Amino acid sequence: MVRRATTNHRQRRARALAAFTLIEVLMSIFVLALGLLGLGALIPGIIREQRVASDRTLGIVVANDARAYLSARADLRRLVIPTTGGTGFGSAAGNRYGFGEWLLNDQWSDTYLWDLESIDAGEYQDAGNFVIGRRVLGVDPPAIPLRDRLYPSPASGLDGPQFVWDFVARRLPPSDASGFALLADVRSGLPSGLPQQWRSGVEVAVFVRRVDTGIRVPSSQTPFGVMLRGSNPILPVGLSSATGTPTGAGADTRNNEVYAPPMTLRAEFDGTRSTVLRLERDGSVRGSEPGGAVPLANRLLMASVVGQQLVDNLGNVYTVQELLRLESNFAEVRILPAIPAWVPATGGAVSRWDDDRAWTEIRQVVFVPQPPATTIVFRLGVEPNAVRSPSGSGAGRLPL
Hints:
The chain is of the alpha+beta class.
């Protein structure tokens, strides 16, 4: 009897030793909770990275569509509308048309910087439409309407767009090897009214942005409907006129909000730190371009956001990796890729259009308020027959 009791006691003790104690169970639950919390913290980052990768892939498609669109617009590449019996090079400003509004203007991009002042600020900010110039000899100026810059397009049959693209341009510096020649090399015999700085092409930077996700659309309407309506539209990417900051919910034009345009800042490279740019006020800006009223402090903040893409006046595209320093009048950012080794340090002299350093130094960057999905830079020429040398032979330029 005693042996049986002893055996039962031993069996109960063995079972007790094989089981988990309450403390062990609680510790296991605690460790499991920590693991789940860590996994939960990773999931938003994974989703964000997947979205960035998806946006970048689709953004390249949209950017290539934008390039094809701009290249196919023959009216943009038409420099002038000649008067009857004229040569097309008349001194009357009314003859300018398409890129001629830029290339026949000595003041436009006079030191090969990105130039936004030629954009109709009112039309661009209030309706998102890009208009070049004005009505010429009864012909409307070239326009790149918001409708054509949405992706997918209204004709796709979908309810609304995901992306919108914008572009800026600058005058190409002389570069015979690339097929663009400087007609000012000929110092005499130029037709009357032909600017010395006339070149046969422009460089274009296209920014592709995701449409603001906070846009509210009434149940009876569609995103295309509210963005493209004739009065009080809600534009796809918004900027508050009062604060000069992105709205995140489009631009409700009834509430002092405008289409968020590209902007510029002066940029400097010190010649030693190949992954650092210093950003400050752009002295070439006159204040009449879209977004001209945005304070410097806000421009610096928007330009230095991690993931922002900056395009310098040499056509290089950089992505902001880190904000190194932010003051009231300047910011320093770390960028990738590194600045090419051939680029010299930014000098302090004021550049001129005929100064070699004007097209070799980093002096400016252009960007959009919302970090874009993709940014591309390419060159556009004009119709070869529209580019004439002083002798009429076509010498002095190479057709594209």
